Amino acid sequence: MKRARIAPGRWATIAILGILGLLFALPLAGSLEFTLRSPNGGYGLEHWISLFAPARPASYAPIWTGLTNSAILAVVTVAIVLFLLTPTMVLIQLRFPRLRRPFEFLCLLPISIPAIVLVVGLAPVYLVIGRAVGTGIWSLAFAYGITCLPFAYRAIQSNLDAIDTRTLAEAARSLGASWVSVLVRVIVPNIRVGLMLASLVSVAVVLGEFTIASLLNRQNLQTALLVVSKQDPYIAVIMSLLSLAFVFLVLFAIDRASRAIARRQSAL
Amino acid sequence: MTQTDPAPAPEPVADRFAALTDGNPLVSDRSEGVRVVFDGVVKSYGSQRVLKGLQLEVQPGEFLSLLGSSGSGKSTALRLLAGLELADGGTILVGGEDMSRVPANKRDMGMVFQSYSLFPHLSVARNTAFGLRMRRVPEARVRERVDAALALVGLSDFAARFPHQLSGGQQQRVALARALVTEPRVLLLDEPLSALDAKVRVQLREEIRRIQLRLGITTIFVTHDQEEALAVSDRVAVMNAGDIDQIGAPEELYTRPATTFVAEFIGRSCLVDAVVRDGFAEALGARLPLLAPHPDGPARVYLRPENLFLASDGTTGAVPAIVVSSSFLGAMRRTQVKTTEGVELVVQHSPGERVLAGDAVRVGVRPEPVAVR
Predict the structure, then answer these.
(1) Which carries the bigger pLDDT value, residue A265 or residue B336?
(2) Cα dihedral B21→B27→B32→B35 (10° resolution)
(3) Which of A256, B146, B238, B282 has the fewest CB atoms lying closer than 10 Å?
């Protein structure tokens, strides 16, 4: 008897992927086409070139300030994910497994809270933070750490679940490892991919975030783009495309790195 | 807890195995094992008391097995010794030193776990070297000792492989090498063979015993498999509900079980009605000596299958029975029978004596001492 077909056939796969690809590619293509429109008619790279050699440098300064601030925020947010969230998750996995469900709920909660509602709650908190540590752009990373939680948690937890964390930790302890060595030399190397994904997602969230920065009166890439786009709409679209390209390249690099690690571990 | 004859103190490794040292650094650097003492150790998980004041002394260089069913407390005792859990009461001494406040990474124990515990991201060599690097051993010495440890377990050619490229038996060998390379004071084995297939289990347990004898290291082996425990141990402690029911040499536990639990847990037994009279139990037409004194009167005794036999027609005292089933087990047959009085027995006999279900047979009892329930 012929076995029932579960997966779609080759042409069906091509059709589905093609339609989906078009859905994603068309807006991007439209954006690219928009940025290539020449002021004198036809197409050219004038708008792209003007980003790096602007006629009025001061008008594009907010973009570079916003980009720098977003970079700082990305670094601090990734540090929160790697040095605060990850050890906490490992501690719960090893010593307090009963807290896993409540912790998971807390980490996933921010995804259900709209950013504007989040800001209403964060605003008075940031008054206190401002008095305590100042109003530097880096302090916004505390809020971004919360918004990244659902994505970072999932990426890291899936890796932790794939290894027998408890036995590995106990084996390492029986061999003389301190808890720091257990974390750094045993657990982290086995959840590398999850950590990379969590870091990437954090960077993507930070680069694309607008509401919190705007309502808390901070300047990041997205708020800067809004300001500049009122004078030059082309620049906003160019920066969006560059951001997307950056994230795509990082994803590609992570995928290549993961495959290389898997290949190296499989090779005799 | 019933204490039978304690094992004699083992001879020094050098005297017993001088010919086997063959220059292996792990063996030549070996000193005698240390004594391990559990003194009134108590451990509870919530309202459940798992260890109820464990009293146990492991002699230097001894291979002692903790045998029991799930929940008996054997793994808990091992984990307390390793420092992976903290006792609620009592003292654990290793070489005379109180381990109560010593963290797990400072206890100098080697441990092999049931689930494969090799670090997936490290090669066999780097896995084996892990403990030495935690102790900041010089790199040249690390290489030498890793090579010696892998040679000891027969995996010298596998140093560059990763755990996922090894079979289960090979992984446990590497885990053993990793545990031994640091020359721990005590070797702890927490059901290391449970996840392996039968043939590999037998091979590896013999190898573990061989290595332990060569190194003279005090070893505590946790298992629920009585055959494993009886095959490799100097002494076996049978644990039941958080305490030790009996401890002694394997032969002692098998032939002279001190409690009902031990009699039923170790080996197979048939429980039959008997009458005790003048120090003998009269059962199945036979008069059997008792392992321990018992008042005269009705009783129930344990009969081992190997002490029953299929008797010929002329054998006096044999009882008639009908074969229920018969299983061929390679070197022997095990046949279940039911006597005319409805008593169910299991007889162990040579494979050449072929019987079929429904056959009429006669069952005799060898005059071996029996335990009374």
Answers:
(1) B336
(2) -130
(3) A256
Q: What mean pLDDT comes out for the span A199-221?
A: 88
Domain extent listing, chain B: 2-256, 268-372
- Domain of residue A85 covers 61-266
Q: Do B165 and A171 touch (CB under 8 A)?
A: no
- Count of C-beta atoms within a 10 Å radius of residue A117: 11
Query: Where does B2-256 sit in CATH, by number?
Result: 3.40.50.300
Rounded CA separation B181/B153 (Å): 11
We report the CATH number of the domain holding residue A157 as: 1.10.3720.10
Reading the block at residue B117, the tokens are: 């515990």
Kindly tell me if the per-residue pLDDT of B41 is higher than 80. Answer: yes
The closest alpha carbon to B152, from B124, B180, B114, B171, belongs to B180
Is pLDDT larger for residue A265 or for residue B4? Answer: A265
Of B17, B50, B61, B77, nearest to B217 (Cα)?
B61
Q: Which long-range contacts (CB under 8 A, 24 or more apart) does A5-10 make?
A: none
CA-based nearest distance B259→chain A, Å: 35
Contact A175 B115 (CB under 8 A): no
Residues of A in contact with B78 (CB under 8 A): none
CB B373 within 8 A of CB B337: no
Give CA–CA dist A225/A213, Å, rounded.
12
| Rounded (5°) CA angle B333-B335-B338 | 170
Query: Which among B111, B121, B162 is the nearest to A189, CB-wise?
Result: B121
What is the ipTM for the molecules in this complex?
A: 0.81
Q: For the domain B268-372, what is the CATH code? A: 2.40.50.140
Does residue A79 lie within any of the structural domains? yes
A183 pLDDT band, cuts 50/70/90, is: very high
Span B181-206, mean pLDDT? 91
Residue A46, pLDDT score: 83
Question: Looking at per-residue confidence, does B14 or B175 come out higher?
Answer: B175
The count of domains in chain A is 1
Give the span between the Cα atoms of B31 and B226, in whole angstroms: 30
In angstroms, rounded to a whole number, what is the distance separating the alpha carbons of residues B151 and B180? 12
Mean pLDDT, residues B137-151 = 93
Q: Which residues of A touch B (CB under 8 A)?
A: 163-164, 167-168, 170-178, 181, 185-186, 189-190, 265-266, 268
Q: Of the candidates B138, B142, B149, B199, which has an alpha carbon nearest to the alpha carbon of residue B173? A: B149
pLDDT averaged over every residue in chain A: 87
Least confident of A56-65, A173-182, A201-210: A56-65
Contact check, Cβ <8 Å, B117/A171:
yes
Burial label, A152 (beta-carbon count in 10 A; 0-12, 13-18, 19+)? buried
